[in-house]
## 1
Amino acid sequence: MWDTVFSTANLLAMAMWAGLILLPRWPALLAAVLYVGVGLLSFAYLVGLVGILTGTFDPGGSSGSAGFSTIEGVRAIFASDGGVTIGWIHYLAFDLFAGLWIARDADAKNFSRLVQAPILVATFMAGPVGLFLWLVIREKRARSAGRWK
């Protein structure tokens, strides 16, 4: 079961990233990335996390020590295919949300799609790396236009 959930989440994320990087940024596409991509991944994470922590899903991978306050507790969550899968879905959802924000911000600041593409690919492959690159690259235009625009 977890292989199917993992593969489905990956396919959904890849489709949303491909659209975000390659297609025109029509409002419908941006809404699809937000609600279909980020929204469904976030919902899958919620269901999976509750299921793992309560022992409803993957009871063999859950233990009394599972939790977020210690490294042992986090290790206990990731000690099963279910835990790894929901952890991966967490990454997919947040990286896609960061990519959507980067794309919208870059469009608003008139950065070309050629500049955006490698940053979005970096965000897709290694989320915080792409986000960091974008924060550095955007700074001059953000400052000249007023930081919050």
## 2
Amino acid sequence: MAKFLYVYHGSGKMPTDEAERQAAMDAWNGWYGKLGSAVVDGGNPVGMSKTVLPGGKVENNGGSNPTAGYTIIEANDIDDAVAKAKDCPILKDPGFSVEIAPIIEMG
């Protein structure tokens, strides 16, 4: 099995209401449960990023498509990884997307 990186993109706020926060966690846990042993690293959300450009210029706030978090999974191929991502709870918000990239083992 190959490993794939899911990079979640979009900007949004974590729910502040406890019931909404719990519902979001339940949705993620349910999705991870469906993925089962395919989840290699459940990942985490990430904070606001900075991007270093050639010449040392720094962009704040992640640019036009900020990273929101990541997960690493195992799948048969990229099409299998794409199929697994389609049920990701982050996709319920139209401002978010999941980028999928194969992890290339070096060595």
